[in-house]
Amino acid sequence: MNARAVAAWSATCLFIVLFTTNPAYKALVLAAALTALAASAGFRRIRGWLTAVVLIATFATLLNFISAHLGATILFELPPQIPALGGPYTLEALAFGFVGGITIAAAILSAAPFSLLLASHEVVDALPAALSRTGTAVAASLNLVPAVATSFVQVTEAQRLRGWRPRGPRSWSEIVVPVVLTSIEGSIQLAESMEARGFGSGPRTAAIPSRMQRSDWLLVAASGLALALFATSRISGWAVDWLPYPTLVAPAIDPRPLAAGLLLFAPVLLWRSRR
Amino acid sequence: MAIATVANLTYWYPGTAEPALRDVRTALQDGLTVVAGPSGGGKSTLLRLLNGLIPHFHGGRISGRAQVLGFKVIETPTRNLARHVGFVFQDPELQTVYSTVDREVAFGLENIGVPTRVMAGRVEEALHAAGIPHLRGRTMRTLSSGERQRVALASALAMRPRLIVLDEPTSQLDPGGAALVLAAATRLVDEGQAVIISEHRLDRLLKAATGLVLAAGGQVESADPATWRPPSAARPPPRTSVSGGEMWSLEGVAAGFNGQPVIEDVNLNGRSGEVVVLTGPNGGGKTTLLRLIAGVLAPLAGRVQRRPGRIAYLSQNPTALLHRPTLRAEVSLTLDRSGENERPEDILNELGLLQVADRYPRDLSTGERQRAALAAVLPGSPGLVLLDEPTRGMDVAARSALVRLVTRLRERRAAIVLATHDSDLTLALADRVAHVSGGKVAEETMETVRA
Fold first, then answer.
1. Residues in chain B with pLDDT < 70?
2. What is the phi/psi pair of residue A252, to 5°?
3. DSSP secondary-structure letter at B73?
4. Nearest CB to B294: which of A161, A181, A207?
5. For labelling, which of A262, A265, B106, B174 has a CA lying 20 to 30 Å from the CA of A252?
């Protein structure tokens, strides 16, 4: 699995998710990312990511449902005197929020392979020479994700034994603050170690040059084709946008942008298991 | 020949009013130079000055001059000095970039643009120099901490630096791993390499040292390694109480992760007013045992029992729990939670931390942070005290303070379990010793331990 091929796939996923409002195509990208991660990393490893993504998506959905009092199909109403919350609660606002949640979930899971499936050095190796200095920051950032998970377990255990109990959002600061600080410190130490070994001193060579395998080229080709097909679909008007307001309607679906989304399932066949 | 000279150098970390190095004037010669001194005295800062991490990576304010191997440190970025000065950090886990030994050793060579065709030879040469040719091809996660630290040494050596700097390279290692790292470092000196090393285990190093630098309170002075003697540990206070009733027990316990046992068929117990010391190599299962006793890890089989009461647990990464704005607030938090009527200053004074009580705990040095974490978990009178490698990075004075503190807790009838590699600590405190290795636990007689 080559980081450049993964980057091509992730970029295409993000392009489709961010350049359409049509929930059908967004959902297709979400399904592709989810299936690719489950096939290569396994559900056990992505469980934490899924939990976080569901929470974030739910928050986005509810936020729009609560704050956007637009749309024709009223589900219920709260008295308008209630600040911020008062007014009609509509099916359209719920649907729009739900699509926002899908967008966020698809975007996060499209970028997840960089942390879940690739080691930080594989990403650093794949960076073009012009970005070699950026590599320190990239490696440190990627190191942050697993470091957060490890720190979370350590800190929660230690604080529980010190008498901490979850009592509302404020109490979580005793977990979140040390977890974040410890993870950042770990990443800074990694960056310090890389700097002390000459990282960024000039053009790099590689003990084992990062070569693209056949499967990587196939993924790049599938991603490129998907990108071209979807971009063409947007320009040609085949991939029609969707807006739930004022009345909720089903999104229009065209087989050509749909085919672009289906090409993003290629990693299911191409990525070897990295459980 | 002087390989490094420092003149009138004063350095402040970002956002601090007190300098970490004060008007340092010293010359470091070829051969083996040992840097000694108390925790927080400026050892790590001085070493980081030698490869330019201070000031280029850490920032802050600096005045004066420093020259290493003819390079002006303040004007030469670390990434350029790295070709001439190799650096090995304290924690072997936090300096690994690649997942295999060969790639890890080659990382520095890749950074300085060594042609691919000559890299394999340079890696082989470095692995031999660090005494680990047998680790070639291994994945990093299968290595012990001692092996990882020697891979870090090989990674530095691969760049053929003129000077190797090691910052407390054995503080995270068991005695076997530490001996191998120190042997590798002294062998390099025999082969003509200049080595500067900061350590708390000084006995063996001082015999081979050609230079000695003492750092304390940010001030640095030279001493004669042949005549200077490190401060000796204070004798532990005499025991005045006897052990009481059983506080915790493990009966036929197996424990591990993802259904795979790390330890099996463990039968062990502890009483109030008793210190049980767990010894054994890294990865043997000591931490798993402590987590079982603490109740944060459920057994796969068998029964774990403990009497109700407050548990004080110092984990392997104790500084992770520090999050209050001052050390005093950190200690107060534990005391408030446990409802005990003790002043935070008592334990801070006992651990020699009163002068840093109002500082942000994460701004302290590694050794001070370790003591800060002890102060955060141990105030008052816990019923069960579980300490995982409590002497990591501690100097002699801090270790003596720890011995006094544990002795006091024992007198207050706490049941204490210590996991440690530190044989001096074991001899000073242990009532019973259990050797944990390969997933098995075997009690040892005190006669065996003393022998």
1. none
2. -75, 135
3. G
4. A161
5. A265
